[in-house]
């Protein structure tokens, strides 16, 4: 489905952090925006799983004209224990910008805001997965400093593979028991 | 993020089971709810991401498989006993073939074969004998099935039984559930596990016989097409059955695969005679499975794709039988690695069949012990004619006798290395992403193993009274043949990890200079190590020749090792030269700004080096270069562009000569016995890549010479599309003029 792109943004976008009180107003739009690019919808529990625990790592880009949702990023940050020593690992779970508004740096701003928020909360690293064919997403993350660390075979339900992308924010402690998974 | 819920959730509890005591919690619920404000969320501490992804929303048709549209019935209304035209039977068989292939590709039965109403009916009663597998539900009425329906039934049963073989095969070997393949059969005997093979074959033959004498119903072409499809099922079962006979003549094991390879071409030509019956397939059947999964769509492969995949499957099945023509472990490794490097990669069932042929029941290739395999390998790589491998040691029972103790030490050695060693072969049978990931783990194991084995070496050198080697340049120390062997394997695996990184497009363009520098570093280390092994083999050879027990057989064994070392060192030299050349070329492109690095405001070079080199960070030997060493060696700030390009030219030229030399060597000399064709094709692709790298370097040199210092280059760099270059491990840029 081709959507006509806007050549100019409707003024200065509003970027706001998500809060639970906004659920009724924005969760349906968030779900709709993210589901567009998924082969199967996530249940509401997946959204709430993230938003309830890490609302402070979720940001929305809103249209200044009517406060409608244009873009969203959803993350989490917690100790990652399959490492020893464990790292404090940030994870970008979902990111989407409404197709008409793509190519204006909106996703880049959203990602930067969440990286900043996670760095402020002492994240050691930030990781995410993206479909191997999703070049726009990969370019965006790589421009910011992420590296592909590995390829994951048939990671998605549609049979496509993924890349794991990693952004290291702090040097790993030396001599740690390495793990590459 | 990851999209899937697991394919296999536990079955729903049965609330009417006598062990379940129902308690009414309505009152408790109302009481609890009163303490909450509307819209307030409560999260249970045990509710994980995994559970949230597996959770469903009731009454959402995309998630709730029991949610019905207005007037929709829960069950499929298609009757399997309805009359079918011959072309419809043919159409259904071909649709099943497409679904079978989708299953081979890694999609679950629920989205493939189990969407067939026929398959569903045949297997819904958990049949354990062929008589119980029915369309009509009664063995009496079943006897009167019309011929065409009987043929379809035989086809389905043959198909399912064939899938059962595949499923069991896969489950026995190393593979990744849901990533490579889904073995889950949703709590049902869908694949007729309990039904014996013999009656299935009989039924298929009977169906063919009945079709032949059928009263002039189908046209001759269609009758033939039906017959060939039944024949395919018989051949498939035969192929699977035969593969258990690993000691048989490999040529005879190939027969059914060759037969199927022919049949599938006929099937392709006949496909248009059939008429699809879309109603005979439905996702609704998923509702009957022991699973709480949301309904998922049928996976449709086109018939053309299906044909192409089967054609390759049958060809691969034939080819892997050659693995049974064992020559030596190094050729075997070449066999496996070159076979698995093919694009697209062989299907999971072939990859597991290959493992099965090699290692089933811990009997290697059906004939050898793992000990024979390991000893054979050692005798080629570092221990020709060695006391350590003398079988006579085992017969000495005096505990103080050095031979007895040597035998003990070697037993400890084999126990220590067996798993890691066999893993190298198994890892190569995985999907390419997993090969790289698993090798990253395996080198940690080999690093530890090398250290442990060195202790065994030390004890053995005392037992065998080995003297350190003195040369003009000083002491080279002891031979350490076992740990040397381990080190060589570790180095190869480290190179493969980086090379697979190129193949899988893991590196960004501006990283290539550094990664090729590291390949060069590893390959150089391997060549030096090969040289060390050679020094000790030569010492042993000289001593052996001087003794009066030197025989022609011993000479052959020494020469084989020297030949192995020569091939290894030549291969390592090609790799290091080519990598060196590409490193210099990419460094120049980075320096001239023809390759641009992204801004990366959140990262720096040192942090990215840590991520990139993480698999190698803890390896003791060869130690990972520090970030400063790496940066200096890659960027070579003191060397001018001209000099870098001159250097690249000669390095790439050296690699070219090396590959040419390799390509002229025999299968015996290069340890590619039984797979020389594939091995040679690989060397030739490397050669082509080296030639194109040479062209890139020359183009750059000429342009720079023409423009002079500081002039505008008017060039751009075109990177080959992933997998479209001459060789996936050698990413060579194209330098093109811009106007
Ligand atoms: C991936 C996705 C989030 C990118 O959103 P976006 O807002 O278009 O991203 P950006 O605008 O930040 O970056 C896209 C391009 O615009 C350019 N751009 C950045 N800032 C800009 C600005 N201020 N003005 C104009 N263009 C700009 C970027 O350079 C980038 O160019 P590139 O395509 O050559 O790399 C969007 O395509 C999307 O929603 N896709 C579907 C969902 C998805 O794939 N999510 C990611 C899963 S991990």
TrEMBL record, chain A:
Please state every residue range assigned to the domain named N-acetyltransferase: 16-170
Question: What Gene Ontology terms for biological process does this UniProt record contain?
Answer: regulation of protein localization
Tagged with keyword Amino-acid biosynthesis: no
* SUPFAM superfamilies xrefs: Acyl-CoA N-acyltransferases (Nat)
Q: Which InterPro entries match?
A: Acyl_CoA_acyltransferase (IPR016181), GNAT_dom (IPR000182), NAA30-like (IPR044542)
**One GO cellular component from the entry?**
NatC complex
The record ties this protein, via Gene3D superfamilies, to:
3.40.630.30
What are the UniProt keywords, alphabetically? Acyltransferase, Transferase
Key word Transferase present in the record?
yes
Pfam families named in the record: Acetyltransf_1
The GO molecular function terms of this record are: inositol hexakisphosphate binding; protein-N-terminal amino-acid acetyltransferase activity
Give the similarity note: Belongs to the acetyltransferase family. MAK3 subfamily.
Q: What is this protein called?
A: Acyl-CoA N-acyltransferase
What species does this protein belong to?
Pseudomassariella vexata
Automatic annotation (TrEMBL), chain B:
Q: Which UniProt keywords apply?
A: Cytoplasm, Transferase
* Domain NAA35-like TPR repeats stretches: 320-703
Entry GO CC: NatC complex
Q: Which residues form the NAA35-like N-terminal domain?
A: 38-191
Q: Name one Pfam family in it.
A: TPR_NAA35
Q: Does the keyword Repressor apply?
A: no
Molecular function terms in GO for this entry? transferase activity
Compartments where found? Cytoplasm
Q: Which domain of life is it from?
A: Eukaryota
Q: Which family does it belong to?
A: Belongs to the MAK10 family.
Q: What is this protein called?
A: Mak10 subunit, NatC N-terminal acetyltransferase-domain-containing protein
Report the source organism.
Pseudomassariella vexata
Task: List the taxonomic lineage.
Answer: Eukaryota, Fungi, Dikarya, Ascomycota, Pezizomycotina
